[in-house]
Amino acid sequence: MPDTPSTGAADAGLHLEATLDQLADGLVLIDREWRYTYLNRAAEQYMRLTSEQIVGRTLWELFPDAATNDFGEPMRRAMKERTVTYVRAYHSALELWLETRIYPTADGIAVHLRDVSDIERQQRELDDAVDRALRMTALLDISNEAFITEDLD
Predict the structure, then answer these.
(1) What average pLDDT is seen over the chain?
(2) Residue 97, Cβ neighbours under 10 Å: how many?
(3) Is 22 helix (H, G, I), strand (E, B) or coil?
(4) SS3 of residue 29 by DSSP
């Protein structure tokens, strides 16, 4: 028996959800009333909560600091201006560095989340190593000047 259109659509929806759950990055859908309507497994892991604990609740209920943190303004702008926004910042409630792209949708916004904590840690380590190297170079320059001055006397 061939699939009826409604069965085909239901199967496609299940297939899409299974595919989104395989993504390493998080995907969250939020409606125009700021209620979570969907999140994939990666987003559940980032948030340390299940879909059942999140869907139907508002962003502001789950993350009261979203009104003032680095993520709130780009989300409000995407929702209001219907424009794609981007933020890369530390999310203190989740204890993660997140690279976030926020896309307007017909029903609200879609939030693409990527954990960049390891990249940020590596960048900080590299920055620290460069700072140490620059300080060492400055000390060596001072030492060389001292040796040159001593030799001239």
Answers:
(1) 83
(2) 18
(3) coil
(4) strand
Say whether pTM exceeds 0.85: no
Can you say whether residue 10 is alpha, beta or left, with left for phi > 0 and alpha for psi between -120 and 50 degrees? alpha
pLDDT in tens, 94-149: 889 999 999 999 999 999 999 998 877 777 766 567 777 777 777 777 766 655 55
**What is the DSSP secondary-structure string of 104-127?**
EETTEEEEEEEE-HHHHHHHHHHH
Residues 98 and 91 sit within 8 Å (Cβ to Cβ)? yes
Q: Is 26 exposed, middle or buried (0-12, 13-18, 19+ CB in 10 A)?
A: buried
Backbone φ and ψ for 115, nearest 5 degrees, come out as -75, 115
pLDDT digits (tens, 9 = 90+) for 70-86: 999 999 999 999 999 99
Beta-strand runs (E) in the chain: 26-31, 36-39, 85-91, 96-105, 108-115
CA distance 144 to 73: 52
